[in-house]
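Entry type: protein chain
Record version: 2
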Amino acid sequence: MTSKNEFLQLIIMGILTAVLLFLINLQVENIIHNFLRSSLSLIFIFFLSGYSLIILISGENLEPVEVLVFSIGLSVCITIIDSMIIHFIGLGINLVNIMNLVASTTLIFLILTLLKNYLFRGMKHEIV
């Protein structure tokens, strides 16, 4: 995959994450809002958060099927860990709290990926 395609993927994922955060925190109750919020939440719970972690930690050596399977598994794990964090903090476990933390985690992974791929690309790491 080319660098331009990877950058475009990261930007699109960031925009989806921002839209999800907006829809989750918007206090409107109608059918379209609920459908969009639920649809984006399912995409995050089952794919995007794990995919953002996969592109952060892996190189170009994974096949697309492996990326899909690992993304689904890691997304579920991230959602479970985020739910445990919410429970231990003492907040109520509901869609708004879980999706805010999952979207924030996804944004952190995306920012770290951008830093890794585009800011630190030219730096050499030496073992002392």
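Comment: The chain has four helices and no strands.
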